[in-house]
Design goal:
Mean pLDDT: 93
CATH architecture: Alpha-Beta Barrel
Order of helices and strands: EHEHEHEHHEHEHHEEEEEEH
Radius of gyration: 19 Å
Largest sheet: 12 strands, mixed
Low-confidence stretches: none
Bound molecules: S-adenosylmethionine
Structural class: alpha/beta
Strand content: 15-25%
CATH superfamily: Aldolase class I
Number of domains: 1
Length: 313
């Protein structure tokens, strides 16, 4: 078991497999999404995940950048899925390349998928992401359902005057299909000064949709979930700025270059590649680093210098 200095059990590892992305979302990073930086090999990812699992990690989510741009994504998924101790394996994607890959990844051991979808309107989607690919994302969602990936969660970041007027259309996606639609509050990664004015909080959305009623929430869950009469899916609110959940944080992040980030908002990273040749030393280093995990993020008083594409959201 991995316990940090504040008594939190850390059993969830986010594995960013690349900083590259095939979209260029306005709120995400530093506009360098196509640049290729150092990327761990499949064998290195396997070694690192095995060490984390031996320390107590049970749940892994593969992310990026955009994880599906890696040509060896099937091998990465298979390696993590076969790691002793890893019980759940999900992937976060923008969905653009998902339709042709969903079955391959499911067969390799992927269980669930989170798909980013900030608008169901083609021109708003293009404005937000820089690409005219909404239809491909919608096909990816359909294919994920067909294949049996579960749960399927759609993540949306709303911004006032940009895509907030599409909240209702996004909510209704949870009506007729067993898909969770989750609204993530805008965090200050690319527009620190502006993000407060643009952010749509979970509470504002709850006022907009008074027919939503709360569901019980698991202790380590970051989202507050709601349902509505006749809805097959849930509506979730992830509100890291207005409703901090740091005291329940159970996760750390392995970056694409083999460093660890202990908090999404922290600029500090700790390199693990020097320990790759000695798994006992690697485990010891992971246990030592966990004790440095900060008590809480400092959004509100400061903005991170890194973009989310360099971290894995
Ligand atoms: N490419 C994948 C995707 O699009 O889901 C994985 C990486 S992306 C960085 C992960 C998530 O971070 C996405 O759901 C995205 O909307 C979210 N995200 C990026 N920048 C954000 C910000 N400034 N505030 C809140 N969420 C953000």
């Amino acid at each position: 078991m991995l316990t940090d200095a504040f008594g939190r059990t850390i059993d969830y590892l986010r594995v960013s497999v690349t900083t590259r992305c095939n979209l260029n979302c306005v709120y995400c990073g530093k506009q360098d999404c196509e640049k290729k930086d150092a990327e761990l090999t499949v064998a290195q990812i396997e070694t690192l995940v095995r060490a984390f699992a031996r320390c107590g990690i049970k749940k892994v989510r593969v992310t990026g950048g955009e994880p599906l741009v890696r040509s060896d994504i099937r091998e990465i998924v298979a390696a993590i899925a076969h790691t002793p101790g890893i019980e759940t394996l999900g992937l976060t994607t923008n969905g653009v390349l998902l339709a042709p890959l969903a079955k391959t990844l499911f067969d390799a051991g992927l269980q669930s998928v989170n798909i980013s979808l900030d608008s169901t309107d083609g021109s708003t989607y293009r404005h937000l992401t820089g690409a005219d690919v909404l239809q491909r994302v919608l096909e990816g969602i359909d294919e994920a359902r067909l294949i049996g990936l579960s749960p399927i969660k759609l993540n949306a970041v709303l911004m006032k005057g940009v895509n907030a007027d599409g909240a209702g259309a996004l909510v209704s996606l949870a009506k007729n299909a067993p898909i969770d639609v989750r609204f993530i509050e805008l965090m200050p990664f690319s527009v620190p000064g502006e993000s407060d004015a643009l952010r749509v909080t979970g509470d504002e959305l709850l006022r907009q949709f008074p027919f939503l009623t709360p569901l019980p929430t698991e202790e380590t869950e970051t989202a507050r979930y709601y349902t509505a009469p006749g809805y097959l899916g849930r509506i979730g609110f992830i509100s890291p700025v207005s409703h901090k959940f740091c005291e329940r944080c159970n996760r750390v992040r392995l970056l694409a270059n083999g460093s660890v980030r202990l908090c999404l908002a922290a600029d500090e990273t700790y390199d693990l590649t020097a320990f790759l040749h000695d798994e006992a030393a690697l485990e010891k280093e992971i246990r030592r680093l966990i004790l440095k995990k900060p008590a809480a993020h400092l959004f509100g008083s400061s903005a991170p210098k890194h973009g989310l594409n360099r971290t894995g959201g």
